[in-house]
TrEMBL record:
Pfam name, any one: AA_permease_2
A biological process from GO: amino acid transport
Membrane topology type: Multi-pass membrane protein
Organism whose genome encodes this protein: Solanum tuberosum (Potato)
Keywords: Amino-acid transport, Membrane, Transmembrane, Transmembrane helix, Transport
GO molecular function: L-glutamate transmembrane transporter activity; L-lysine transmembrane transporter activity
Name of the protein described by the UniProt record: Cationic amino acid transporter
Any single Gene Ontology cellular-component annotation: plasma membrane
Domain annotation Cationic amino acid transporter C-terminal: ranges: 508-557
Transmembrane portions of the chain: 69-91, 103-125, 146-171, 191-215, 222-246, 258-276, 297-318, 344-368, 415-437, 449-472, 478-500, 507-529, 535-557
Keyword Transport: yes
Cell location: Membrane
Family: Belongs to the amino acid-polyamine-organocation (APC) superfamily. Cationic amino acid transporter (CAT) (TC 2.A.3.3) family.
Amino acid sequence: MGDEIQPRSYWRWSKHDFFPGDSFQNWSAYRSALSQTFTRLKERVASRSEDADEIVELRKESENEMKRCLSWWDLIWFGFGSVIGAGIFVLTGQEAHEHAGPAIVLSYVASGISAMLSVFCYTEFAVEIPVAGGSFAYIRVELGDFAAFITAGNIILGSIAGSAAVARAWTSYFTTLLNRHPNSLRIHTNLIDGFNLLDPIAVAILAITSIIAISSTRRTSYLNWIASAVNMVVISFVIIAGLAHANTSNLTPFAPHGAKGIFVAAAIVYFAYGGFDNIATMAEETKNPSKDIPLGLLGSMSIITVIYCLMALSLSMMQKYTDIDPNAAYSVAFQKVGMKWAKYLVALGALKGMTTVLLAGAIGQARYATHIARVHMIPPWFSLVHPKTGTPINATLLIRLVSACIAFFSSLDVLASLLSISGLLISMMMAVALLVRRYYVRGITPRTNLLKLTFFLLVIIVSSVGTSAYWGLDPNGWLGYTVTVPLWFLATLAISVLLPQDRTPKVWGVPLVPWFPSLSVAINVFLMGSLGAQAFIRFGICTVVMLIYYIFFGLHATYDMAHQPKKPTTSRILEEDMGSARA
């Protein structure tokens, strides 16, 4: 008992709780740390975490444990809640009208394949490293501290901006239910355009969903079941009623803008699949991660992919793509076939969907932030888990308070494509991390095999970038693909034939390695290249801001964390994780 961590008050605000490292004890220590920036950067770029550190050591930073209360059934419904929001109602009509035509179905198939490949990678990692950090923890183990920081920055940016955007959309759909103009419940001001419509309702819905998520993970799961079930009823109605009023002549021409239109739309509608990674962050609260996470992730995403394709098909067959209203596709389509009342049902479905996205998002985003704080990339105060609720209250407040401030003032239109790049980049890095995990094990893999793996991975990434760039420069060309596609194929084949897998998954593994992860890299890079120059400019600016933060704070905080003495391990953590591994 002498080694047990003594409980402390959860609500504390000392400097040590925010800046515990030696580098931040005083200005002299901080100046000394800055003078060692280059040396420390070299160490952190090369450093990689261990599975045991993520599973056991870092969890001690939270002082209290999250409660294992979720089953595979809960995770499937959390998958529905996290993923199915307003995106399917908004993006389908927009992209069918502007880019893909009736071939929007193929856009959902393409983006669904990409999402499923990423789900495979997440599932293997989540089973083997069942922690709250999700992709951040997995990339930290396989690609190192610096790559994990880039991931962390994109996760936090996406969490904050994404929650704010959904909250503002919630207001718009709520006013539709009241049969009023979308901006009628917002406060009009004389601020600059884009920041002149203040949205107190968005702030209120963020506050309500956050309070529910903070109170209890189990209670949040029950409410998510109910809201998601209502949403599924609405979606079933949309599919059945749409197909009942189908006219096959509306499918001609099927792809009016050709393959380019299909893939441009695929890059946009991919983000209707966003949010599945939240399931992986619930591993610490899952009763049996090795069984429940594969069922929850793969089960929910398989069903969602089919639902999305059927919804896209019903809209395309109900109305000619040129007549689809890009702003209210389903509502207008039902009105055209004499079901004007159905627009309220569609608005209700979208509203319920956004509510569950915010509810499940409050769970997943906070757990990401908790694990990021455990390694001190953000102040460790945000890693604390409340002893009674078993939830990370501070991390939830971090994400949601900033989201509420942005949602109150900004429409966030400028961040939409930026968030797209962030999600695709993380998915691509996850695929690379999985290949590294299978083919490189420290102390086992020979250096020559490591060099070969590094070279082949670079060829896969560069050839994928080349394919995407050539597509953007000459969508109707073919000559460039005769170079880039064979290079990708040969590099993947070389990994398969020339390199042995030095690690075998204990419970569940991605099938057809290295082909599936390599294909995931290629598809994610290809979709990134479809987003346009402005998205990359904004992403570059945000990345520079992240790097400045890392150089002046994150680098030194994580360096101090890596060199501090390890805390004593509680027997309960060890017993639980050994039990999960055996299961």
